[in-house]
Amino acid sequence: MATRRLPNYLRTYRKHSGLSQSEVAFLIRLKDKSDLSRYERSVRLPSLRVALACQEVFGKPVSELFAGLNDSVARNSRNQMKRLQTRLQANIAARGTGNRIMQKLQWISHRLLEMPNFKLVSV
Amino acid sequence: MSYKSLTRVLALDLHPRRFGYVVVESPDRLLDWGVRSYRHKGNSADVLIRRRLKPLLELWKPSILVLRNGLSMARRPHQRSETLLKRIATEAKNHEVPIRILKKRPGSEQGKKLTKNENARRVAEQFSVLRWKMPPKRKPWESEDYRMNMFAAAALAMAQLNITSFSPAPS
Q1: B145 secondary structure, DSSP code
Q2: Do residues A49 and A91 both lie within one domain?
Q3: How many domains does chain A have?
Q4: How many CB atoms are located within 10 Å of the residue B63 CB?
Q5: In this structure, what CATH number is given to the domain that contains residue A30?
Q6: What residues of chain A lie within 8 A of the CB of B29, using their CB?
Q7: Are the CB atoms for B91 and B57 separated by under 8 Å?
Q8: What is the nearest CA distance from B85 to chain A, expressed in angstroms?
């Protein structure tokens, strides 16, 4: 049974700390606890400032606090990189090899290989 | 990114007017816990499902819902609890969550039947954060602490995920 990670685990870390929503809202300087409630229920996405404040308060990296969101962003970025790679390869075929295009292609290939869950497919 | 080994279990321990719940993600990560109740006039089953259980299903998106049907062992049928169980099954179906109903209390299969307090102690050993919620041992003249539902739910989740740190509880 394959299950995706949840968009965020803010509620889990807050409950493990024993703090209430109002107390965490005070720590990360939100106006009131309703904002935090919205973030926990993934109704609203927090700003970068709030995300970094959560990282500081809970002592966990943002990628772990917002695990599901992190996964979906990583997936999208990977797909976009693959699309750009295909586009650059088409450019090479049309215009011949140029140093700048080769540099970009090499960088993208390296990044894709470094990314987790990337499958090398031989064409 | 999906994880083939990732299972999120929502376990419930039912009472006619409240339920204890625990959300555990495999292998043994405790995500959420608590007791939700409705103690006012009216159709408590309806409120418990619509206002208390539904948000949990929407928030945690469990891959399985586990609960115990203690009524199968009861001497006479219990209309209200039977209705509650059926409505939970319907709600789970609406959210496409498979449901597993256990007939026996976890821990009762190991020969000696453990008391609820011993079960709670074993749960608190596994999930140390629940130690803060551990109710004191019930005296014979006292009624059961409402938090005991939460520990019973945690025991169900542990049984579902085969978390077996179930060593004999220290006396």
Answers
A1: P
A2: no
A3: 2
A4: 18
A5: 1.10.260.40
A6: 12
A7: yes
A8: 25
Cβ atoms of B161 and B7 within 8 Å: the answer is yes
Contact across the interface for A4 and B64, Cβ inside 8 Å? no
Contact B2 A4 (CB under 8 A): yes
Mutate to test the interface with B, among A12, A41, A58, A77 (most CBs of B within 10 A): A12
Q: What is the pTM of this model?
A: 0.84
Q: What is the ipTM of this complex?
A: 0.83
Q: Give the integer Cα–Cα distance in Å for B57 and B95.
A: 7
Give the sheet arrangement for strand B99-102, strand by strand: B29-37, B18-25, B8-15, B64-68, B99-102
Q: What is the distance between the terminal CA atoms of chain A, rounded to a whole angstrom?
A: 32
pLDDT tens digits, residue range A15-67?
A: 999 999 999 999 999 999 999 999 999 999 999 999 999 999 999 999 999 99
